[in-house]
Amino acid sequence: MTKENNSDYFARVITEKTATYNSSPLTSFHDHLLKIFFDLAQQYDGLDSFYQICVAIPQALHPQIAVSLAVLTHSKNGFQLACAGKSPIHIPEHIISHLPLVAKESSYTEEDVLLLPVISRPLISPTNGTAPDKLMKNTMENETHPCLGFLFITHFELLTSIDRLFLEKLVTRIGYNLQRRLLQASHLQHINFLKQLGRDIGHNVISPNMHFKNLFRQLEKKINLINHEVNVNIDFVNKPSLRILKRCNEIRADLISTHEELLEHYNRTSLYLETLLRQEHFNRGEFILKARRCNIETEIIIPELEIYRRRFENLGITIDHPHNMRDRRFYLKGDQGLLSQVFDNLFSNAVKYTATSTDNHGSPRKAVAYGCQDINNFPKKGKKGVKFNIFSTGEHLNDDERLTIFNDGVRGGNVGYNPGSGHGLAFVKNVVEIHGGDVGYEAVSGGNNFYFILPLTEEEPAAGDSSNT
Questions:
Q1: 181: Cβ–Cβ under 8 A, 6 or more apart, which residues?
Q2: For residue 258, which of 59, 138, 317, 467 sits 20 to 30 Å off, Cα-Cα?
Q3: What tens digit of pLDDT does each residue of 216-270 get?
Q4: CATH of the structural domain 3-189, one choice from 3.10.20.30, 3.90.650.10, 1.10.1200.10, 3.30.450.40
């Protein structure tokens, strides 16, 4: 729905409501009570204060009626009294215990008590792509609604028919306000939980993880001790012992290789943990960047490729490197940990989906390539950006996939039996956009190119094209 449509809709609604209010049988006293309700509801934030307001407003209709409010509590899976007026009323337990979780809008009586349901309505927004009229029609046609609470009134026979009409309108307003307050309270509880979780992760995950570094150092010392013993004693062994020594050398080489691989994975995992579970993220409710200048190829791309190199080799996938990217240091205001995970996700997809295609000379090719190139007028005219490309051979995505491939939960049609959740490219998009960049897909000769563009800062001079796709 366009903004113009929204304006037309609200203008019409205002006109209709003005006519409704002009013809309303409510007296100026009832109208003032509604205004007082809204004034007090805006002035006081707490739920307890709001419950007291909900009871005090109807109490003002007549000095001899008694008013109480019961609200739904998820912890007890039912309703409990939340507030009573100046003349508390005894509501039989069986009435409270049998209050419906879903009720009709209209009030009803039970054992000399007037019950007015406080219902929850769908929040209607004309900007969510659905016509407001249709949303309102669907809401009104639904005869029952989830109950947030009930307003109880005794001696209700002292109320006039106009008082009863006022109460119907009042509980509608109470419902809207209570629904938003409960959502707000839930969100605040969620935010506080995330902040506490951030502190817990720092204490119980990040800090203990550092102990692994000490263990790796101890393992390295033991490997070096073996190296020393072998090198010192090699001249003092006989022939049978040489075979044992040769086997020891093989085991030593395996230990060194395993140690290096473990240390590499530890360093990358530690970087990911520190980046994703940074306490600032939980405190602010968004990714907080730790920007610094770095060599994208040697500090991010090459270490990520090393993790996947063996898998690429086992699948017969060659890796093509650019020629002039190694010596370039980008000042991107980038977070090394988050950008490392961007490349990790892109390389992980390349392992899964790279397939054999035919190159320009008619020869079969199964390869991945990476590179970068300068982009002018990004993110706006007069500025510069750098485009990072990850190319892989294989069939192109279809038109529908190209439009949705970066959406969370979406996977391409060539997934086959490859495991995955469809979250990786959505994560890439999120991180790149946090950096002020953009992501995209291109169907190029021989395969697919996934790319992202990041803005360069003033400190970084322009450089030549280093794309190798």
A1: 47, 50
A2: 317
A3: 777 788 778 777 766 766 666 556 676 677 777 777 787 887 777 777 777 777 8
A4: 3.30.450.40
